[in-house]
Design brief:
The protein is of the alpha+beta class and about 475 residues long. The protein folds into three domains: about 180 residues, no CATH class; about 150 residues, no CATH class; about 130 residues, no CATH class. Helices cover about 40% and strands about 10% of the residues. The protein contains 17 helices and 13 strands. Strands 1, 3, 7, 8, 9, 10 and 11 form a seven-stranded antiparallel β-sheet that branches. A hairpin with a 6-residue loop joins β7 and β8. α6 packs across α10 and α10 packs across α11. It starts with 8 loop residues before the first strand and ends in a 7-residue tail after the last helix. Belongs to the SELO family.
Amino acid sequence: MPPAPRYRAETLHAALGDGFFDPVDAARFPQHILRYRNQRWAARVGLDTLTEEEWIAHLGRFEPLPGGFPKPLALRYHGHQFRAYNPDIGDGRGFLFAQLRDIEDGRLLDLGTKGSGRTPWSRQGDGKLTLKGGVREILATEMLEALGVDTSKSFSLIETGEPLYRGDEPSPTRSSVLVRLSHSHIRIGTFQRLAHIGDEEALGRLVTHCVAHYFPELAGEPAESRAGAFLERVAARVARLAARYMAAGFVHGVLNSDNINITGESFDYGPWRFAPRYDPQFTAAYFDDSGLYSFGRQPGALGWNLTRLAETILQQVGLQRTEQILGGYQNHLQREFRLALLDRFGLLPARDPEQDAALAKTLLEFLGKTQTSFEQTFFDWRGGMASRERAAASPQAAAYDAPEFAGMREALAAHETAPGANLDHPYFRRATPCTMLIEEVESIWAQIAERDDWSALDDKIAQIASMREAYAPAPAGG
């Protein structure tokens, strides 16, 4: 008999009250084929001892976890979508299935779904997820986690045996249900909905709930300043997310306010891409005609969404304090971007902060002028000047001998290699880094679609695991 699960279930979201969610039933699927199981994170929440049958029962048929929600909760929220306010959205093809505690640090974590069937917020949709969409989300989250971006974790993917028809995929296509593990599913759009309907009392309860369960370090704040402290924490988290996107070369594609949560954790991956080269205008979504969510505009887009959150709790925070917090977003962003670059390069902060700023400036200038590979550059110079011999053997070594690299070389020389740079890790004996460009994603999917061959996905996940080990623990920035 397998050992008993070690998880600790919570039902804290239910305490917010019925106005925040709708209890729903999961769809019944004709088939359940387990395609992906995140055993590493299952261990963090105590579900690693589940048998495959038990895993499918809870994460495919959504039988309640003992001590958890008796029925899943479809969460209510609004949001700005491409800057247009939409009061008719909510969890339309997903729900909050369970809340658990991280065994290592005690954080509250959510198990939310994607593709689990229709809810009151599905509108004209079928509430389902294509298998390709599930595979793409696994690849996005695994890669982002390895690159130091705060992201949801793809926890489970089960193929469900239904033909789905979609306008952006050859149809019929295969179906799946995904379960993601996140720190929070409370979004900026959750606050927007309450402001839209004028429920100030519920907004106050929501702030109190968020402080208690996601920012407990603020519990000692006086009641009159707690909302401002909460907004300031969210601003710092959102700035960190923006900075980490930029340092990873990642484009989310759909940074609507319903896709931004209060813990600053990236989630809900649709038309995402990694930029092959530094190009601020690079977009991920084919329907983003104006480039609103292009690579270079992501920090501004996230700041815009942060302002929408501030509007909803303006009465609690006060105008002067709100302006002060929003005005500090850019400073948070610059600081976090410099720390993110130091993490990526495996360098310690310089004694003079201006040298950290010079590293950021010269890097962007070099990447912009030479259009060298974004990821190869970070890979080659991991450890700074301690890796100059390795960089000299790079496929793009000629770019490092060019005049455009002179400023970058000087900036790297001003920084010491961090103790945690892990330069002796086998990953850094590769000639090229692990990447996740669109061509690679499509190739992985083609092998699944054409031959039901999952080996390329397995191999890519193994490569990413090696990269994650090489880059952890983060040497700076935390």
